[in-house]
Specification:
The structure is a single chain. This protein has seven helices and no strands. The chain is mainly α.
Length: 189
């Protein structure tokens, strides 16, 4: 459970397309002006969680065959993500093209970080340790709520968070990369 929570938190709070777009939107339009876009991103994330839940239920008979490949995929992805975080720079997005609910929803549903987040979550953390559709749903709901909270941190922080990252980016990246490395290794224990 601890590794699961670390994985969900770290992958949700670290910079990604949705986080950066939410931060930029609130910086440009404020919370009220960016509300539709923010709601679209949050809805897209919940939609991906629901699709993941349905996929687990529909393909449960094949879970034992795909569990090991999903664990390795999750491990490799976490190592890759840790590397990307460690080597990332302070490049924010400057596009103001994303302002509507539809834009936020589509951005989130097509966001590779979110798609791989749910694939890794299911393969590395949920399938190996959780049984029963109710338990799976609870884990996915916890993931969505933590993801929402982290996305909202970026929305509320706006330019203030951006300033903090400019000052402490290296330390932040090292800590997040090490936590992801821990999560990757714990997949096999």
């Amino acid at each position: 459970m601890f590794s699961f929570l670390i994985y969900v938190f770290v992958t949700s709070i670290t910079p990604g397309p949705s986080n950066l777009f939410m931060m930029n939107t609130t910086r440009i339009y404020g919370l009220r002006g960016g509300k539709s876009f923010i709601t679209g991103i949050l809805s897209g994330f919940a939609f991906l969680g629901l699709v993941s839940y349905i996929a687990i239920l529909l393909f449960s008979q094949w879970i034992t065959y795909i569990e090991t490949p999903l664990k390795f995929l999750g491990f490799v992805y976490l190592i890759y993500l840790a590397y990307k975080i460690l080597t990332s720079t302070n490049k924010g997005t400057t596009s103001n093209a994303y302002h509507s609910f539809k834009s936020g929803f589509i951005l989130q549903v097509l966001n590779m970080k979110s798609l791989l987040f749910f694939i890794t979550l299911i393969g590395a953390f949920i399938i190996p340790s959780v049984t029963g559709s109710t338990s799976i749903l609870i884990y996915l709901m916890i993931s969505v709520f933590i993801g929402w909270a982290c996305l909202l941190v970026w929305a509320f922080a706006g330019s203030v968070f951006n300033d903090w990252l400019n000052k402490h980016q290296t330390s932040f990246n090292i800590i997040m990369a090490l936590l992801l490395l821990y999560s990757a290794i714990s997949i096999f224990f």
